[in-house]
Amino acid sequence: MQICDSYSQKYSLFNAMNRFIGAVNNMDQTVMVPSLLRDVPLLLEELEAAGGVCPQREAALPPGDPGAYFSRRDMYSHYMLLKSIRNDIEWGVVQPPAGEEAARKKDKLGGGGGGGGGGGPAEEGEGEEDLEKQFHYHLSGLHSVLSKLTRKANVLTNRYKQEIGFSSWGQ
Prior knowledge:
Layout: H1 13-30, H2 44-49, H3 55-60, H4 66-71, H5 75-91, H6 98-108, H7 121-164
């Protein structure tokens, strides 16, 4: 059985993850000396092209704000972030301790108080519709984020090649 990459599969989460992992693997193979990326900023145009931070937001962040760190990273920080996200996708993320997870689920479910055995059939149908909407919302968001991260990995790879003078590698 052959799997074809049709137009509809272009938007699958599985393919988006594979494109991202492939781009990060390519970046990882290309960047032979990651320490050369330290203190080398990605140009604002490159970040915008890869779906990065807009200049208005970056300018509005005070230096002590944690968000300011994430918006003003050098190429090495982007490199490490992309590799970390790839590892999280491939190997999973570390789960929080059981007590924190239970408390978080309780908060998400609306307090988790004891009331009598759930809602009627109409409420269950609304809840399932809500779950479907949430799923589609998060699926589309995850696809969008993976596409932006893939572009960032490709931009970083090309910029590294440019910085070390090998702009014609792999083309």
